[in-house]
Structure formats: C-alpha cells, structure tokens
Design a protein that fits this description.
The protein has five helices and three strands, in the order ααβααββα. The chain is of the alpha+beta class. It has a domain at 16-96: Winged helix-like DNA-binding domain superfamily/Winged helix DNA-binding domain (Arc Repressor Mutant, subunit A, Orthogonal Bundle). Strands 1-3-2 form a three-stranded antiparallel beta sheet. β2 and β3 (77-82) form a beta hairpin. The longest helix is centred in the C-terminal third of the chain and has 20 residues, at 84-103. The protein starts with 7 loop residues before the first helix and ends in a 13-residue tail after the last helix.
C-alpha cells in the first residue's frame, strides 16, 4: 500500500487554481482595509455569473481565506474581506500580477468571421 505525502504546492494549486479564485484574492487584497460587497466583486470580475461567484466565495471562506461580514441596518449588508490567512497570500498574488505585467503580452480577441 503506497502512502501519499502531503504536497503544499498541490494543495495550494487545487484551491487557488480554480477559476476566479486568484482574482478574488487579488481584488480583496487590493481593497484593504475596506471590504467589498458582492455586486462590487461581480462587477470587477466582468459580470461573473452570481452562482459561480457565490460558489467560489463559499469555497474560499471554507478554506479560511475569505470572511463574510454581515451588518444590520435598514437592510442586511454583506461584505467580503480577507482573513489573516488570506492577507498573507496577497503579496504572492501581487507578485504574480507584477510578473504577468512584465513578461506576458495581452492576447488579441479571436478574429470575427464575416458572414458568407
């Protein structure tokens, strides 16, 4: 019976390699010390489907990276921010951002086909 050793890179990749996860960490890190509301995150992600955004936020919250803060007022206000664990990840995500700006080129959108 073979035992599998824990690999932190694999574990981090499994969590953060999901689509939108790194961008969520990036936007929440950038917004500090403020928190962001759901609609602000959705807007920054180009109108991401609300179900997908909800799922990703729940996964990051369950992993201990994101906190959901409710404040009562005239209506319930929900905001999202990074936990201490999530904030520690912020500089690594920002280094990836800087690396991408330095070394990667934007890819043009695919050419549209003309109707025949």
């Amino acid at each position: 019976m073979a035992t599998t050793e824990f690999c932190p890179i694999t574990a981090a990749s499994d969590l953060l390699g999901k689509k939108w996860a790194l961008l969520l960490i990036h936007y929440l890190y950038e917004a500090q010390p403020a928190r962001l509301r759901f609609c602000a995150l959705q807007e920054r992600l180009g109108g991401l489907n609300p179900a997908t955004l909800t799922q990703r936020l729940k996964e990051l919250e369950a992993a201990g990276l994101v906190e959901r803060v409710e404040s009562a007022g005239r209506s319930l206000r929900v905001e999202y921010g990074l936990t201490r664990q999530g904030r520690e990840l912020g500089p690594a995500v920002e280094h990836l951002n800087a690396w991408g700006r330095k070394w990667l080129k934007p890819t043009p959108p695919p050419a549209r086909r003309r109707p025949a």
